[in-house]
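Why do we care about 3D structure at all? Because function follows from shape, and shape follows, mostly, from sequence. That is the central idea of this module. The next example makes it concrete: a single protein chain, its amino acid sequence, and then its structure expressed as tokens.
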Amino acid sequence: MGDGNYIALGNKKHILVLTPGFPENDSDTTCIPALQLFIKELQQTGKVDISLIAFQYPYKSNTYYWNNVTVYSIGGENRKGIQRFLNWRKIVKTATKIHQEKRINLVHSFWLTECAFVGNKIAQKLAVQHYCTLMGQDSQRDNKYVTKINPFPKIITLSKFHTRTLVENTGIQPQYIIPWGIEKIKNIPKVTKSIDILGVGNLIPLKGYDRFISVVKEVQYQFPSVKAEIIGEGPEMKRLQRMIIDNNLNQNIRLIGKIERAEVLQKMSKSNCLLHLSNYESFGMVLIEALAQGMNVFSNKVGIAEELEDIAIVEGKKDAAEKIITLLNHPKERAHKFPLLIEDTVKSYLDKVFLDESEKDI
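And the structure:
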């Protein structure tokens, strides 16, 4: 990990990635799957050298390798107060040490929160450029870091909807909109559709699963044996379970809880449609994952939904129920669609962010 290793790598541009969390090993598939796909694909291009600092998770301080990427886990465990401030100092010291061993050329933070805040300090100290990709609710008005970060890094958003939200809430204009992608699946087996309606996401008020249950209740009037499942965990679990019982939907809706990503994709392959009634998404990776698994997708006008013709936008619970009833009355097999691929996402980052013109054909 010293200078000799850097020379052996041909003096490729060295990117320091900052993220709240990262998988602790190769089998940890549920920790920010979108970021895992991106880092793995970026590493495989061989065009840049990557070091990564994970602020909060894994919960243990450690340095390890993940798919040939060096990961520095700070082990913050989401502590607050003075402990969080001490962790920030540790992160800056870690970045400085990395820089001494192998010069950092660019800092890239994910989420416009503490990673961007600390990333700014690191970039200023090392006199390098700083980019930040917003990944979730960090475009909302209540993001306290917006007033703390000065100057702003160069900003990247994930969709037109995401950009509109950011501009309306903060006045910040992004430098680039770069949508996320997924891996192309080859040789997809044919699977019997045993689930009618699927929901995937954290069980928090933002995701609108109370509306999901109401839609299933409407569908049940015409299809008494309709089968729906919700994958995810969170603080809304007990309330949603009570709502299911109160609506006599025990035989119709199952709360699955948290499962491995491979199991989520298997559930998708067995499901007729994805119902996504979230109030907000910066992108909504679940939407393109569902298309890849041959699902019909019904979604609120959030994230990437409005930009993809294969996604049916719903206007409220009644409209969602009517569209699903029509589908169940006239079921049709959907082709597996891959409108956005992670290789294209990585290529856009290489072309627009990470590489200079002279480096792009290396």
